[in-house]
Design brief:
This protein is of the alpha/beta class. 30% of the residues lie in helices and 26% in strands. The strands form 3 sheets. Strands 3, 4, 5, 6, 7, 14 and 15 form a 7-stranded mixed β-sheet that branches. A 6-stranded parallel β-sheet has the order 10-9-8-11-12-13, sandwiched between helices. A two-stranded antiparallel sheet has the order 1-2. The protein is globular.
Length: 329
């Protein structure tokens, strides 16, 4: 099969190779998927680039997320899955060295869900890390119906989905953006209010949005930068879930105020999240896809042979949505 791989960590154009690798076959408990699209996420970039991740094996096919068609079912797997359109996550992660930047992948059937025909393979490649992380992060707020929720960076891949989940669960949503175009994008996802963090007083606008009663829940993409601002804006018993911290890895934490407000804080990396939460996310995503109406944002699509360009685009930042690699399209 055609595939992308690396045998050492480094810059995308220095280490990613394109060529032939042995075609895999489904083992017990696995399906084989003919891949049509592979999603590229920041976590895939960090694993390939180093230095905060070790090589999981001597040869790695990158990328976690993807979509395609099941063409083999291993022992113990329902053979009725053969021929089904599916989306998947956790392709290349701890303990798994062969990801979705290839024409085929074999993977546990528990990591696979049906992809309705109203959703393209390219859109299906967005559902793993972005849509599932967003779902798990929003659900950590518990019952948020009719309550104010803040989601930072509402035009980003994960947080654009987070806005949609929060609105689906009945919340009132405020989010930050950096331009009028990004504000339009976030409002299209359902945000009730956008705040331009470059030109507006974010804390004041959030305080007004909550009517002075405080935020019930926060989904944050930069914990280190935002925690000092957020704690005074929280309602008693509120919660914060973060999935990234960029500029400040060792922030000063207002522990006393946090404690007195009885707040809950949770960090989130999808592949380490509780299995029940991940399965609920898979099932809720598939249900919504079947109903129709979930929005997906594709930043760009690159041929498999040009996966290095896709990785470089993600690493450069500034994209809106998910960068996708076309595997068999």
């Amino acid at each position: 099969m055609k595939a992308i791989w690396y045998t050492r960590q480094g810059a995308a154009h220095d280490v990613l190779q394109y060529g032939e690798q042995p075609e895999p076959h489904a083992a017990a408990g696995e399906v084989r998927i003919k891949l049509y699209a592979s999603g590229v996420n920041p976590a895939d970039i960090y694993r390939r680039a180093g230095p905060n991740f070790q090589m999981d094996g001597p040869l790695i096919i990158p990328n976690s997320d993807g979509a395609g068609v099941v063409d083999e079912a291993g022992r113990g797997v329902d053979r009725g899955l053969i021929g089904r359109r599916v989306w998947l996550y956790n392709g290349q992660r701890n303990g798994r060295v062969f990801g979705t930047a290839a024409e085929y992948i074999t993977i546990s059937d528990d990591l696979v869900r049906e992809l309705p025909r109203n959703t393209s393979f390219t859109e299906g490649a967005c559902l793993g890390i972005p849509a599932m992380t967003a779902h798990v992060a929003v659900c950590r707020g518990g019952n948020i119906k009719d309550r104010p929720v803040f989601i930072s960076g509402g035009a980003g891949a994960v947080c654009h989905y987070a806005i949609q989940w929060a609105k689906r669960f009945g919340a009132r949503v405020v989010t930050t953006v950096s331009s009028p175009a990004k504000a339009t994008h976030a409002l299209a996802a359902g945000a009730d209010l956008t705040i331009d963090y470059k030109s507006e007083d974010v804390a004041a606008r959030i305080r007004d949005f909550s009517g002075g009663k405080g935020l019930a829940h926060v989904v944050d993409l930069d914990f280190g930068a935002n925690i000092g601002m957020l704690v005074p804006l929280m309602a008693a018993g509120g919660s914060l879930a973060y999935f990234a911290t960029k500029g400040n890895l060792t922030p000063v934490f207002p522990a006393d105020d946090f404690m007195r407000r009885n707040l809950t804080l949770s960090g989130l990396v999808l592949n380490g999240a509780p299995l029940a939460a991940r399965r609920r996310a898979q099932d809720d995503i598939t249900q919504w896809l079947t109903e129709g109406g979930m929005q997906h944002t594709i930043a760009s699509v690159h041929p498999l042979a040009q996966t290095a360009d896709a990785h470089a685009e993600v690493q450069a930042g500034g994209k809106r949505g998910t960068v996708v690699v076309a595997c068999n399209l």
